[in-house]
Write a structure and sequence with these properties.
Elements (H helix, E strand, L loop, with lengths): L1 H8 L4 H25 L5 H5 L5 H9 L1 H27 L7 E5 L4 E4 L1 H13 L4 E10 L4 E9 L5 H20 L6 E7 L10
Length: 199
């Protein structure tokens, strides 16, 4: 449930963070190893020798075509890995459809956009709300909702939140048959309805 609540608040970047931490640790370990090697911790003779073993250098010189092919393939693999990682990071967030009833041969499904539009329309109809927007996030098994509410100047924020929780979201949970539907609500002042404050 805690993970579902986090998905309502913001898109998870845990996978990206984990990969970056792992990559950073590998690079840090390599840098420390090279620094220790240069300072002669592994022996003064080893510090004066080239980083690559002469046998490896001789092998590369003996087979230049194979060395180039290996370098090109490694570069292409790193490029593909980097591009796929970047594409995954900027990929639009999933908007799960909600399965209301699943039978042996059929299932009743509510489109994510339709459910979000219905929530937004009900929230916008509350007193003190100028406009509202909603988005379904998460997965089909663990949906969550993000709601943006723009308040009018005369709105009572506490009353709006109570009505949103009791009327709109309570009705949504009941009609969708979901016992727990994590929701993140963002309140803002509706600038479109605000006139000049100084005459």
């Amino acid at each position: 449930m805690k993970k579902r609540s986090r998905s309502a608040v913001a898109r998870s970047a845990g996978g990206d963070r984990s990969l970056l931490v792992l990559l950073g640790l590998v690079l840090l370990a390599g840098g420390v190893l090279v620094a220790l090697l240069g300072y002669g911790v592994f022996g003064a003779d080893r510090a004066g020798r080239p980083l690559l073993d002469p046998a490896i250098v001789d092998l590369i010189r003996a087979q230049p075509l194979a060395a180039r092919i290996i370098a090109i393939v490694a570069g292409v693999l790193l490029l593909v890995l980097g591009l796929s990682w970047a594409a995954g990071s900027v990929r639009p967030e999933r908007k799960p459809d909600l399965v209301i009833d699943r039978g042996p041969a059929t299932a009743i499904t509510v489109d994510a956009a339709a459910a979000a539009d219905a929530l937004a329309a009900q929230a916008a109809a509350l007193p003190g709300v100028g406009r509202a927007k909603a988005r379904m996030v998460g997965t089909e098994d663990a949906p969550a909702v993000r709601v943006w509410v723009w308040l009018t100047d005369d709105a009572d924020a506490r009353d709006v939140l109570e009505r949103l929780h009791g009327q709109v979201l309570g009705a949504a949970r009941t009609s969708l048959g979901i016992a727990a539907l994590p929701v993140a609500v963002r309140l803002e002042l509706d600038q479109a309805s605000s006139g000049p404050r100084v005459a």
